Structures are given as C-alpha cells and as structure tokens.
Amino acid sequence: AAPARYVLGVDVGSTMVKCHVYDRAAAVRGSSCRKVESLYPRPGWVELDPEELWSQFVGVIKESVQTAGLHMGQIAGLGISTQRGTFITWHKRTGKPFHNFISWQDIRSAELVDSWNKSLLLKVIHVIFTVLHFLTGNDRYLAPSFLTFSTHQTSVKLSWVFRNIPEAEEAARKNNCCFGTIDTWLLYRLTKGSVYATDYSNASSTGIFEPFMKCWSPTLCNLLSLPMSIYPPVKDTSFNFGSADSEIFGVPVPIMALVADQQAAMFGECCFHPGDVKLTMGTGGFWNVNTGEHLFASRRSLYPLIGWKIGEEVVYLTEGTISDIGTAIKWAQDIGLFTNVDETAKMAQSIADSQGVCFLPGLQVSVDDTYLCASFMGLKPSTTRNHLVRAILESVAFRNKLLYDTIVKKVHIPLQTIRADGGVSNNSFVMQMTSDLINKKIEKPANADMSSLGAAFLAGLASGFWTDKEQLKKLRRIEAVFEPQKDSEEYRPAMDTWLQAMKHSLHW
Q: Where is the Carbohydrate kinase FGGY N-terminal domain (predicted)?
C-alpha cells in the first residue's frame, strides 16, 4: 500500500459541506462540495436532517479522495470543522435522535428567553456578578453566558427540548440521553457509537461550557434545569479520537481533529500568537483575537472562547460578530442590482461617494427589536445602482471599524496584522476601506477555505504529518495585502451620516 501522504479537512458549514485533500505543502489535491439544506418546520425554527447531513458528509469525503485520484489508505488523518451551536440529542443505548439538529440560527426559544430575561432571579444573579466583577476586576464574572439570554444560545434551546420533548426528558432522567454538537454526532456515527466526545473549541462555543474553569457549567445547568449527565467528555482539539469504522470508507481512517469553524479558520490563518487577528467575512462577520492565556469578556460586544487545546497549551480567543454581510450582498444580487458579485467592487469604485445614501443592515429576525429591518436612507432622484451597491459595501466597512474600535478598547493586547478570509474578503473595495478606517494592514490568503485548512492542520499535527506550528507558518500563502492608503478622517462625514441613519432606523 502507498504511504499515507495526505490529510483531509472537512468543513460542515451553514450552507455547504466541503472537503479538501491536502498534501504536505498544504496544496489542495482534490475537493468536493455538497449543499446543506435547512428545514423550516415553523416560523423561526431552523433545523437540519441528521441523516441527510451524514449522507452529504460521507459523500464529500469519498468524492474528494476520488477526485484527487487517491484511495482512502493514503489518508493520514481526518480533521472536522463544524458550524457552532447547532446541536442534537439522542438515546444513549439505541443511538436514535429525539429530534432533528436545531440550528444556531433557530429562534424557537424566544418566549423562554423573554421570560428569563425579565425574571427576578436573573436580575439578582446579574447584580451579584456585577458586584464581584467590580470588587475583583476579574473578567471571569463577565463571561457566564447566563448574564443575558438570547435566542441564539444553545443553552436555552436545549432547555426548550427538555420542556417540549418528553422522550428526551425521560431518557435524561434515566441517564440515557446524549447531547452533541455536529462534531460529536459525526464522531459518534463514524465510530459506530464507540466514541462519544467533543473538543474544547466546540464545547466553549455552546455557552454551556465554562471557559475559565474548563468544564460544563453546573451553575447554568441548575438555573435552566439542564441535566449534567447529558454532556460528552471534552478532549484536545488536535487529538486521536479513534478511527472511522472500516465499513464506511473501506479502511479505518484516523479522526485526528475536531474544531469549531471560526477557531479552525483562526488556526488555518496561523494566528498562533497573542494579538493575532482574524476577520472572517462570509454570511456574517467574525472578528477573532488570540488572547493567549488570558480571557477577555465584554457584555454584549465581545465573547470569550477557547480557540484550541493541544496538550498543555490552551489558547483563548475573544470574538465579536456582525450579522448580514454576505446575506445583504446576496439579496442585492437577487433583486438585480448586479449580476456577478465580482462587479460590486468596480461599481463602488466608479463613483466618488454614495451621495449620502446609507444602507442599514437588519435582514435577520431580531427578538430584541421586532421593528428592526434592513433599509436604505438618503435616496434621491439621482441615486443609481452604483450608489446603492456602494452604500451596502460601505456599511460592512463601517461596522468593521466599530467592532475593531471595541476590540482595541477592551482587549489590552497590542494587535498584529489582520488576516481576512471568507467570500467577502474577495471584495477589494471592502478590504481597502476597512484597512483605511482601522489604519492597519490586512492580509488575504490564497486559500479561501480557511476552516477546512485549519481542521487539516490540526489533524496533521496530531498524526505527525506536520511536525509543529513553525512548519505550518511556512506553508501560508498570501494572495494580497491591503495597506492604509487614505486617512480615516476622510471617511468621517460619510461615517457620521451612516451612524445618524442607524440611530434614526431603531424602533421606527
């Protein structure tokens, strides 16, 4: 048999499952991509069919290896990156799910969230933690996710499951219920039920896992009446999780990494040092800062996460998010403002400014403000398609600037070069304007699929395919570098107008 000279990186995203075969130079030798269909059984509910997801997952692995002209025996390891917060529960003995995957986008727990956020008990806990933070100065007392509930938190959706699905509640009482994010479920299926585990990056992304103490949070579980028996053991991110059953791929493929998608992209970008920053601009936007051994939390704006754990090393990140980036651009394409996304940068650059037109994001349902909606302000008889497109792209850069300023203020670590990825990082207008506004250099890698590369890097380290992170750094390929060209003050009038429009758009 030929030696194992390749690693696989699979990224299970919100809309696609992608798999890439990488050689030792981290060059892609074969790829496959399949669509993930979301189900919408009721308004506000977003689900995934576990069997459909499993089928697509196995399919892309087989296809990518076939495309590369290889066979499974040549694969040294498999790394799996997954969308965060999407979860399922199933029966420990039978392996039968109690429901479909409940997506991170799902807001079925809105009523529960509303009642909790108004409860006296939560207000008392809020005060206690605020006082503890004030007295100690320790950010640990800002980190617990239960200080303010939102519909996107896994914990409240899991609470909804035990209140509304009697079979799950009964199985939990008998210690027969398993909880898992997508990585845990795929690992369970790959090993025919013999391995039940998750990793630190996925666990910390649920909000049920206490990143400071590195354990499932008994306080939160008591508060929401969640049984502590349902959670999987938490393992290192780069780790030998066992092998896929040989019936699935013909040979036992080693599973060498599980990682959450944003953390995977951070690893793929080689953001290994404190102060390294990754900006992913896809459907939404994610700013991640490597904070090393320290956790930085900030109410409502920045969230602390475990980036990865490899042996004794635990790396923490802080994260800020922006909604509706790729969503808004796709909407503009759907209504015919342009034909091809590649045109948008040229359209925006063809005019001096947006002529006072502002795009205000808000395409996603919000429970906090039921009136929140996307809109344009400042339309005039002279407004053209170019002005509308430029206004949409400017809104991305302006929101990048706001979040970057928050990070600078809250995270007391000197920030290094920013590394961007995701579909919108291909837009030179957004990239240049963001660089100008924050007065920082932004690098764009040659490889756009950073989550799958990060998963492959982590798997490669665990399997000995690559020796260390220094070797990975040498494999980085930069396609473009955006350096500040304009003084950020030149954008001041346009940004002030946009901020005014944002204020006017709230609670209209």
A: 6-268
